[in-house]
Amino acid sequence: MTGSERQKIAVVGGCGHIGLPLGLVLADYGFPVTLYDINADAVARVNAGTMPFEEHGAQEVLTRCAGVSIHATTDAREIEEVETVVIVVGTPVDEHYNPNLAVVPSSVSDLLPHLREGQLLILRSTLFPGTTRLVFELLAQSGKRVGVAFCPERIAEGEAIHELTELPQIVSAYDTRSLARAKALFGELTSDLVELDPEEAELAKLFTNSWRYIKFAIANQLYMIASSFGLDYEHIRSAITYKYPRAADLARAGFVAGPCLLKDTMQLAAFNNNEFLLGHAAMMVNEGLPLHLVSSIEQSYDLSGMTVGVLGMAFKADSDDNRDSLSYKLKKVLQFKSRRVLCHDPYVRNDPSLVDLDTVLREADLLVIGAPHADYRTLDTKLPIIDIWGSVRPGSVAALHDGGTISPGMPL
Ligand SMILES: NC(=O)c1ccc[n+]([C@@H]2O[C@H](COP(=O)([O-])OP(=O)(O)OC[C@H]3O[C@@H](n4cnc5c(N)ncnc54)[C@H](O)[C@@H]3O)[C@@H](O)[C@H]2O)c1
Predict the structure, then answer these.
(1) CA 14 to ligand 1 centroid distance, Å
(2) Predicted confidence (pLDDT) at residue 360 exceeds the cutoff of 80
(3) For the chain, which domains are there?
(4) What pLDDT digit, counting tens, does each position of 24-63 carry?
(5) Hey, which of 37, 51, 75, 103 would you mutate to test ligand 1's pocket, going by the most ligand atoms within 8 Å of its Cβ?
(6) How far is the CA of 357 from the centre of ligand 1 (A)?
(7) Sign of the C-alpha dihedral computed for residues 264, 267, 271 and 277 taken in this order
């Protein structure tokens, strides 16, 4: 099919971390794509051909497609012109970890004046179970015959451009025509389509993130046990996983943060009337790691007179996304315990409190890696480096006690 024959697609939330890569990949496949977003700054940047955030390989696609097969807008009326509308707005939990059930239905309500008969609405956000049904009923009550499908996004940030065509796509809908249309669209990206009922698909997505969150918590719990006894978790983990497929997925230790894994584990807990023992236990372990790390450091250093440099404030390596990053929790604990904390990140642009790397290396007495960015692998410093991720300076817990480094780390 040529570009001009392909259906027009709008992505609502189209300048966000999930909407933009999806829009770019579809545009690169020749679909005319409209990115609708309420963030006027992000819209302007995308239309100027500049990615508003780091995503591997995305800038090249945007440069190729901007103004050709993709454009961004804050004008919801443009949605009227497309055949398929994909909604991928954020679905955060509140400060009490309660999901906001209304966020997607209210986005759909806002769009109602611009939805027209015969369109397909694909929900792509991670949803509290039952949300697809709510949207389906909302549209039915509106009298507009708009199809509804739920096709959850499962990429990892930073890997979206290739994962969108490599991962199987979960597709679900309440009627065969909407399902067929969702399958036809995602079938352009991959031949691996997995059909579920919408409620199953909603749970499948939450289970995926809870599973990962709990798995990382197991690694972190074992790391804490090992380090409490002066043993090197990474040495033990390497031995366990060596030619032993049954334990091959035992993760390295490291901060488990970002906008999804904890949030979706808590969405699942809320859905199950707050009964999710493993999910809550995982939260205690993962959220407790910064405190554990600081108390390990205190066994070797009197922090009260020291300036500590935290390197890497993003929630994962080589990313500029600092949403819900545990580096900020580490910073708060260190601010309480030490004389001064200086933070650096080569990618994060939205935190004016960050200082440049030279200042940190000149003024700090001790460095702690918050996110294991590749840039830090070539650090030229004699300062002690505490590297729980293990990717910047390999070492051991024992080395910490010699003023050296500790391992390990894991890619999220
Ligand atoms: N970030 C990830 O790694 C990831 C992975 C898989 C799934 N998800 C899910 O994808 C969804 C989006 O996450 P994200 O990280 O892209 O969030 P995000 O905040 O980066 O993007 C959401 C975008 O939606 C826009 N927006 C909000 N309300 C809007 C509205 N009413 N109309 C138009 N635009 C609106 C925002 O301005 C923003 O640009 C969430 O449900 C999330 O759980 C995220």
Answers:
(1) 8
(2) yes
(3) 3-198 (3.40.50.720), 206-401 (3.40.50.720)
(4) 999 999 999 999 999 999 999 999 999 999 999 999 999 9
(5) 37
(6) 31
(7) positive
